[in-house]
Amino acid sequence: MNSHRYIGASGPSEFVRIRCEGSWFDSGCPNEEYMVNFFGRYRELHEVTVGTDTSEHFMGDLKKYGYIKD
Asked: What count of other Cβ atoms lies within 10 Å of the Cβ of residue 31?
């Protein structure tokens, strides 16, 4: 079974918005708060730092650590 989820987004801010809207934990949060909350959970699991100052840095770091694949 394929457990991957594919998100079609036109750019980083749309990617963050779609992730936020689909989040079990943070669907009611603004995008900025979603990125910070997601980073906290991701850091606990993977011990890496994900930038949350912009959606571009957030998405770039998730790509760098293999969470997002092109």
From this structure: 19
